[in-house]
Amino acid sequence: ARTWRADAIFRMKKRINMALLLVTGGAGFIGSCYVLSRCYAGDTVVNLDKLTYSGNLGNFEVLRGNPKHIFVHGDIGNVELVEHLLKTYQPDAVVNFAAESHVDRSIIDPEAFVRTNVLGTCTLLRTTKTWWKECAAAHRATFRFLHVSTDEVFGALHPGDPAFTEDTPYSPNSPYSASKASSDHFVRAFHETYGFPTLITNCSNNYGPRQFPEKLIPLVTLNALARKTLPVYGTGSNIRDWLHVEDHCDAIQRVLEHGRVGQTYNVGGNSERTNLQVVHGICAVLDDVRPSVEGSYTDLIRFVTDRPGHDFRYAINSSKLNTELNWHPTHTFEDGLRETVQWYLDNEKWVKDVQSGEYRSWMQTNYAGRLQN
Ligand code: NAD
Ligand code: DAU
Question: Has 100 been annotated as catalytic?
């Protein structure tokens, strides 16, 4: 019965020319943006997520009751479950967002990053490759496995260095980036060894709605609103290249539809900013839209003990994606930041729900011992 159902689903979606995607880690920050955009576009998404601290079903309130979103609670390393999903739904593509994603957490618990980012990705690759080999030739030819990765695999740049290209040698510095670099190597190896149709995207820092508030932009926004200190690591002179999450998801979709199999594509926002500029930018928006009688939010900025091994600068050269696939970011950083800060102001329930006991205990673990300079 299951085989019949799978065949029927496959034939039906081919007839109506919509994709059926198996998205992993789709309850997180970037994955949820991608899932929402694909469901709105008419695709069906099977969303496999372990719901770790950063996975959040509250991201899908707007999809409640929508049959195009099929949520499955589980681990990418669960072979039986993934096999079952592949056989039942016969996806056109697997898009892998599932990961441990926070550098500071990787410094405290590196093995968690090996388990999901390395072992989990490798198991997901093997399970998917085994199923793919048994698919009908037409399906095998069009199937894609897209792995979402990061610019951090390339290491750190000095001021004035040229931006990372797809040919920049890997040189990861944190346990997080080492685990992502390792997963990228496995993806590449599955293409080279088995002819498995893979794609990789390496993207810069994302910002936008629904980002878990352990990352710089939501953390500073929410601390500021609570009149807590705004912790800036070191001198605040480290540089990141910021890209709006919707632009990242557009790039992923473009690579999925038109990217050359076996290739990697860099994705960046052309928006390099020092951390201090970003923090001042958030304070300026808040001073404008939510002025405080206690004074400017910038008064709350504190320089604290630096992140160990803190990469100085990331910058991405996206010209391959620009020229081959005609992708360009659409949000400016200033407008995108203003909208993002406003989103956190407008979504009090979402914010309250994620500031759970786990969140409070992380804030204690990461910040209580940091000295103020
Ligand atoms: P996130 O932490 O917000 O989301 C990760 C999601 O993966 C969560 O929903 C979590 O529950 C899920 N997950 C974790 N382990 C899992 C497992 N074993 N099985 C199934 N699901 C699991 O992260 P994010 O910021 O949305 O990042 C998504 C991906 O994009 C990651 O691979 C990350 O490395 C990459 N990336 C992130 C950025 C960024 O700036 N945030 C930039 C470039 C690339
Ligand atoms: O470059 C892509 C990467 O961007 C992604 O692969 C990661 O998943 C994502 O977390 C992000 O990594 P960063 O370490 O750059 O992001 P984060 O928001 O943690 O930090 C951004 C910068 O701000 C970084 O230089 C550290 C600094 N920072 C961060 C925090 C949380 C602070 O100064 N204070 C803070 O409290």
Answer: no
Pocket test residue of 116, 180, 206, 240 for ligand 2, highest count of atoms within 8 A of CB = 240
- 176 catalytic residue (yes or no): yes
The 10s digit of each residue's pLDDT in 237-256 is 999 999 999 999 999 999 99
Phi, psi for residue 151 in degrees, rounded to 5: -75, -15
Distance between CA 227 and CA 299 in Å, rounded? 10
What is the pTM assigned to this prediction? 0.96
What pLDDT, on a 0 to 100 scale, did the predictor assign at position 1?
46
Which residue has a Cα nearest atom 11 of ligand 2? 205
Cβ distance 48 to 79 under 8 Å? no
Q: Is the pLDDT of residue 4 over 90?
A: no
Give yes or no for residue 240 CB within 6 A of ligand 2.
yes
Least Cα distance to 73 among 91, 54, 42, 52 occurs for 52
43 lines ligand 1 (CB under 6 A): no
Give the tokens for residue 152: 């951090």
Summary count for the chain: helices (H), strands (E): 15, 12
Q: Which token pair is 366?
A: 């990461």
| Burial (Cβ within 10 Å: 0-12, 13-18, ≥19) of residue 361 | exposed
Ligand 1, atom nearest to 215 Cα: 41
* Sign of the four-CA dihedral 2, 99, 226, 286: negative
Strand order across the 69-73 sheet: 69-73, 44-49, 20-24, 93-96, 144-150, 198-203, 264-267
- Could you tell me the pLDDT band of residue 17, with boundaries at 50, 70 and 90? low
